[in-house]
Amino acid sequence: MVKPHTDATRPPPVAGSQRPFDLQPEVSPRFSRLIGDRVVRFAEDVLGEDIDAKIARIRTHHNETGHDPFGFDPDTTRYVLAGAALLHRYYFRTEVHGIENVPGDGRLLVIANHSGQVPLDGVMIATALMMDADPPRFPRSMVEKWTAELPFVSVLFPRVGQVVGSPSNARRLLENEESLVVFPEGARGISKTFDKRYQMTPFGLGFMRLALETNTPIVPVAVVGAEEQYPSMGDIKPLAKLLGMPAFPIIPQLFVGMLAPLPTKYRLYFGEPLRFEGDPDDDDAVVEEKVWTVRTAIESMLQRGLEAREGVFF
Amino acid sequence: MGVVGDESNTNPPSKRSRPRARRGAPSVPPPPAVDAADEALQDPDADEERGAVLVTGICGRLGKLLVRELHRTERVVGIDRRRFPDKPKDVVHYQVDVRRKKTRDIFRTEGVRAVVHLGVLHDPRVGERERHNWNIVAFQKILDYIVEYEVEKLVVLSSAAVYGPHADNPQFLPEDAPLLGAQGFGAIRDLIELDMLAQSFFWRHPQTETVILRPCHILGGVRNAASNYLRLERPLTVLGFDPMMQAIHEKDVVRALEHALRPGAKGIFNLRGAGELPLSRMFRKLGTSPIPIPGALATGMLDRLFRYHLSSFPAPELDHLRYVCMVDDTRAREVLGFTPKYDLDQTIEAVVSPRAWVAAR
């Protein structure tokens, strides 16, 4: 009647201690055998890097069952990381600068400019943190609430460590000494039209209040190259509203059948960690000043990056 | 709100007859003064001043489990419309409707020290009118008697379902999260109103220690939606959704109720079992393979199945299979001092063990 499961004999792990995940297959074994493992092996061969070793170094705050309470699953993540690493190295040929500024452990907020219609900038930052930082930092990012309503996406996102954006979730993760990627521009930033490229939209203040409350260092990141991946000519607002999406961009390349993003060259600039002190419940004006410091740091790296690059694709 | 008839064999009630046990027909209780004196004479160690613990809905699975734990150390009085065939000898059971006048007599004559309110009707098949009346009127009456007879303690078993499963829920809901459960599922409104009544009672009558417990899905021999669902051979799931789930063992809930009965405990407490897992993992542990159905189709299908009495799950409950509704139990750990004893494997297995037992018989 009840099939005995393998880990019944294992003593229940103590909640909260940091330990590596045992890689239990979450995805169906058949899929894992047929496709998943091949992708990982292929990526490892091509990249010459050990993806499983990177995954094994991830430390998260697991619950009593040895599972991540937010749904992170190392087994799904290795497939996704393998794919993302290929994109990172060969499609976008990402140049990563200043990755040594990322602290190896402890709570961390990674704040970046947001662009490109599809959050591939987030994927590339996350991949850089996993593949280029030493030790690898497993980043969580705060995603839009409506992604939790989309079938399959609602499963995939938590499995690879994405968390629905809410202050209490962020606080909990930071208190567990995890790293968090936040785009304070949110949907405003990502759905900018092409004529407004590299002009940052106003930053939200939530991330700064969070940093003050939890005493978390902030690493500013400038992303150059994401703006040109899906140039958008306009935004049909009524249609977006109808579909319950943050924006409905008009992307010309989709009309000629090019679904993939343009192979622009990504350049990521990681700045030195910034630390702030103060009252998290202070007036907006006071918090805004601190947010401004972060914004200027990103802005200046962005300008330097734009000046340094010679072409969008090279 | 049914009873699974497996109690007597799995855990026989105590045969020890106690001097404090009440004699005679329960419907005609002896006058309390004489009784107290009588008890003091026979059992000098017992503090005769201590009143009884009144358990409403005592014939439910949780009520029976609670009584089995309590009756050795406390005088237990039960009220339920149902019969209590295998009750321990020293428990007094009144087979009455809580809304009847008789309830007042019970409060007057039994010297009630604490009330544990388990008599909440969740059955979606019962008409809305009757269910609402039963849940709210009965509870309001109990609150009135608590004030009138200066009962020291009130423990209410609410549920984490009062928060409701929503896409924008934080992963762990604190006790002060808004009770939005009825947003998608009207039938939960009773429970929310009951919870709110208890909350306002907490503030209006500080002399009574009010405890509201909001456990996540209770699993075990209980016949609630979560356990019934996990007992299915081929359960339906919503295609493309696999939320993280919490579950608590029924006996852990009983332990939490005991914690809540301790003097000094008051307030609202979320209860969580040991750990959380994706729903698919729970099925894997049970060895069942669910049938995933696209969301839009599932709602319509389940709605029809429910209407034709082919399924006992109302369609809005599907949201529990889509979105997270998990609670933060920090307060229960730190303030109430309650930590779950059963791990998640045992909790999930508790769902099928009665079925296995019935099959073996």
The whole-number mean of residue pLDDT values of chain A reads 86
- How would you describe the oligomerization state of the chains in this entry? heterodimer
Top CATH class of the domain at 93-308 in chain A: Alpha Beta
Distance between the termini of chain A: 61 Å
| Sequence of secondary-structure elements of chain A | EHHEHEEHEHEHEHHEEHEHEH
Number of helices of chain A: 11
Shape of chain B: globular
Provide the β-strand percentage band of chain A: 5-15%
Radius of gyration of chain B: 21 Å
Helix content of chain A: 25-40%
Shape of chain A: globular
Describe the structure.
The complex is a heterodimer of chains A (314) and B (361). Residues 1-25 of chain A have low confidence and may be disordered. Chain A has a domain at 93-308: Glycerol-3-phosphate (1)-acyltransferase, CATH 3.40.1130. Chain A is globular. Chain A has 314 residues and is of the alpha/beta class. The termini of chain A are far apart. In chain A, the strands form three sheets. A seven-stranded mixed β-sheet of chain A has the order 3-11-8-4-7-5-6, with helices on both faces. Chain A has helices spanning 29-47, 51-56, 74-91, 120-131, 153-159, 167-175, 186-190, 206-214, 237-243, 252-255, 284-308; strands spanning 18-20, 59-61, 95-97, 108-112, 139-143, 163-164, 179-182, 218-224, 234-235, 249-250, 267-270. Chain A contains eleven helices and eleven strands. In chain A, strand 5, helix 5 (153-159) and strand 6 (163-164) form a beta-alpha-beta unit. In chain A, helix 1 (29-47) runs parallel beside helix 3 (74-91) and helix 3 (74-91) crosses helix 4. Chain B has twelve helices and twelve strands. A seven-stranded parallel β-sheet of chain B has the order 3-2-1-4-5-6-10, with helices on both faces. In chain B, 37% of the residues lie in helices and 15% in strands. In chain B, helix 3 (61-70) packs across helix 8 (250-261) and helix 5 (128-148) runs parallel beside helix 6. In chain B, strand 5 (153-157), helix 6 (189-204) and strand 6 (209-215) form a beta-alpha-beta unit. By secondary structure, chain B is of the alpha/beta class. Chain B is globular and about 60 Å long.
